[in-house]
Amino acid sequence: MAPDGQLLTREYDPAQAPDVHASEPIPDAARAEIERLLTSGDLFRYTAPEGAPVALLEQEFAALLGARYALAVSSCSAALFLSLKALDLPRGAKVLIPAFTFAAVPSSIVHAECVPVLVEVGDNYRVDMTDFAAKLSDASAVMISHMRGHTSDMDAIMALCDARGIPVIEDAAHSLGTKWHGRNIGTIGRVGCFSFQSYKMINAGEGGIMITDDPEIAARAVIMSGAYEQNWKKHPGLQNSYCHWQNKLPLYNLRMQNLSAAVIRPQLPALADRVAKGRAGHDSVAAVLNDCDWMTVPDALPPEERAPDSIQFNLSDDWSDAQARAFQAAAKARGVTVQIFGLSEGNARAFWNWEFLGPAPELPQTRAMLMRACDVRLPTRLTGAELDFIAHAIVDAAQQIMGRARKS
């Protein structure tokens, strides 16, 4: 630190910056299984009468999260869509979602012939409970996105929804390994949906999974995922329900294939270690950023034990749009990519870019947050030196644009 308490500016070689966009390598334990599958050609989950990699993944994931049922599918978006269809909501049903989420979330609702209703989000990236409560009376379901791993007040959300008999789907794409009051995120609502896309805690390139304790939701989702003819017999239990729903529900063919499951399964035992490393890495960077006048990393809510693989922080009110864009450029010159959600052209997390929904609603609180909310990937594989590089590059870029101390 400098004598005045401000961070010293460093020299940066962008070529030395860590590559935060490289995916986790395929585990060695998966290679032999992948080779076996390629040799046999048994890539379809229903080829084997039992013990297919996808079936084993479902059993292992359900046990890991403490859920009764799991269904592996092609993506988290597919899991969200199937969850809505399995709830058997009427056409045109209103589904509440946070206004800060990824475009795939409202898209899944549109695909399910329902109507997304956007709820304001605060500068801590969590649902504004006043706006949530006001809009809940017209809702048939809630799809709560734990966006970038930030958990909204699930105690308040579930109390309001349970009192009205409104089902909650948890979009936990970014929250595998996060806990709320010690309970796994994804097990609090009626259904939990997770992603195995390359930038998530477990990397399969693509893929998703849904979990539930509700046998009818599980049975309906299995059939609609593409368990045609007698293939539902290869899912454990629920045979009477499967038999009842066969040929009565449309098939969307959203199945996961065995190669994806072969990549995912060896990573499940590594989850706890990745969560611990991700939290430690996030908190070390947050400590540096919070020491700077020009930005703030919001605190987690007390019941939440986070599992982050990225960091989000807010620029202070002093910044203009031009200065914020200059900050992005200054960080990039140091080798660190900072995404400001509202200032990145066409960003899929800025609700006004979801033109498929029609005119954007008036959500001033969320809009203001997105215009200054910054996002940086922090893969759990980063070393302490790499995390330190990223943190100080961000702070030095901010100080280059705004000066060393905030104006009084």
Characterization of the model:
By secondary structure, this protein is of the alpha/beta class. It has 2 domains: 28-269, 3-Layer(aba) Sandwich (Aspartate Aminotransferase, domain 2); 271-402, Aspartate Aminotransferase, domain 1. Helices cover 36% and strands 13% of the residues. The chain has 13 helices and 14 strands. It has helices spanning 28-40, 53-65, 76-86, 104-111, 129-136, 154-164, 215-226, 239-245, 258-264, 271-289, 321-333, 364-370, 384-402, and strands at residues 69-73, 94-98, 115-119, 141-145, 168-171, 179-180, 183-184, 191-195, 208-212, 295-296, 304-305, 310-315, 339-340, 373-377. Strands 1-9-8-5-4-2-3 form a 7-stranded mixed sheet, sandwiched between helices. A hairpin with a 2-residue loop joins strand 6 and strand 7. Helix 2 (53-65) packs across helix 9 (258-264) and helix 3 packs across helix 7 (215-226). The two termini are 22 Å apart. Residues 1-8 have low confidence and may be disordered.
Give me some keywords for this one.
single chain; 408 residues; alpha/beta; Aspartate Aminotransferase, domain 2; Aspartate Aminotransferase, domain 1; seven-stranded mixed β-sheet; four-stranded antiparallel β-sheet; 14 strands; disordered N terminus
Strand content: 5-15%
Q: What is the multimeric organization of the chains shown? A: single chain
Radius of gyration: 22 Å
Helical content stands at: 25-40%
- Class from helix and strand fractions: alpha/beta
CATH superfamily of the largest domain: Type I PLP-dependent aspartate aminotransferase-like (Major domain)
What is the top-level CATH class of the largest domain? Alpha Beta
Could you name the ranges where pLDDT drops below 50 across 5 or more consecutive residues? Answer: 1-8
Can you list the strand order of the major beta sheet? 1-9-8-5-4-2-3
Total DSSP helices: 13
Can you count the beta strands?
Answer: 14
Output the helix-strand order.
Answer: HHEHEHEHEHEEEEEHHHHEEEHEHEH
Main beta-sheet annotation: 7 strands, mixed
Name the CATH architecture of the largest domain: 3-Layer(aba) Sandwich
| Number of structural domains | 2
N-to-C span: 22 Å
